[in-house]
Amino acid sequence: SVPLGYFGGIGAASRNGILFKGGNFLNAITHINAIAFDKTGTLTTGSFEVISVAHEGITQEQLLYFISSVEQKSNHPIAQAIVHYAKKQGIEISNENSIHELSGLGIEAEINEKKILVGNARLMKKYQINLPQEIQNCTSTIVLCAVNEKYVGHLLLSDTLKNDACKAIKNIRKLGISDIRLLSGDKKEIVNNFASQLGIDKAFGDLLPEDKVHYLEQMTTEPNKSVAFVGDGMNDAPVLALSDVGIAMGGLGSDAAIETADVVIQTDQPSKVATAISIGHATKRIIM
Ligand code: ADP
Ligand code: MG
Known about the structure:
It contains eleven helices and 13 strands. The chain has helices at 5-15, 23-28, 60-71, 77-88, 121-126, 165-174, 188-198, 209-221, 237-242, 255-260, 272-287; strands at residues 18-20, 34-38, 49-55, 99-102, 106-111, 114-119, 141-147, 150-158, 179-183, 202-204, 227-231, 245-249, 263-265. The chain has two domains: 5-45 and 161-287, Rossmann fold, CATH 3.40.50.1000; 49-158, 3-Layer(aba) Sandwich (Calcium-transporting ATPase, cytoplasmic domain N), CATH 3.40.1110.10. The protein is of the alpha/beta class. The strands form two sheets. A seven-stranded mixed β-sheet has the order 1-13-12-11-2-9-10, with helices on both faces. Helix 1 packs antiparallel against helix 11 and helix 6 (165-174) runs parallel beside helix 11 (272-287). Strand 4 and strand 5 (106-111) form a beta hairpin. The mean pLDDT is 91. The longest helix has 16 residues, at 272-287. The structure holds adenosine-5'-diphosphate and magnesium ion (MG). Magnesium ion (MG) binds at residues 38, 40-41, 232, 234, 236. It comes from Coprobacter secundus subsp. similis.
């Protein structure tokens, strides 16, 4: 049976906007000695902004029409930013298409009998689309578009760190947890850039959702590691389930993540991860 003190701990957490799915996780979280963070929507706001548009062989309006018509069917943070931008530009978005979303890559779709691809360089590589040289080494998030297997342009987007993202990492270090890692499906260069702003030295980009699962599998089997994964849930449910303590950011997080997680942070503040650990320790002191 669960010691009574845990109820107090769950109450204290809940007053801080932290939902523990059970008293056992208040105990488990005190044993965590490594934390892996997702990037987009977890440590960054996930509210992207389109910063530039490049088109080739079609007009800018046509490019935005194809991309936004496809993205309006997705609820990825990148998709929402693009649809918002296209609407602001007065683009008539089509609703007549069906899409197939490839997680960690982008989307394939058909519009007016044209085959449309919208996504990252990995998606374009998968379909052997030739890309202009200058695209290879850009350091912002890029969404490329191909129509009938031909590159027709791209958008560059920027994302920013959440206000308390740096504090989140600092407070975790203060609790004596030094193994902090950043995992992301975004490009390596972008992930490294955010990691250095955050003071995280172990950063891994270009990870497909299944790569994240393998990574977490390995990490949890490292000797004497007890691992928490913190994610916003876009494609993160399997990793949340694998970690010793799965923590979902509930502010923007998906239902699947909130369902799978052991701990849900109901505000949009990653610094609450350290708060949750502290409450675990305080509860233990009362019980012991
Ligand atoms: P993260 O691991 O940073 O949370 P995701 O796994 O959600 O990122 O996505 C990884 C990458 O896949 C994105 O950076 C983007 O390049 C691409 N991607 C995923 N979904 C979409 C989409 N709907 N439109 C365009 N690109 C997408
Ligand atoms: Mg994410």
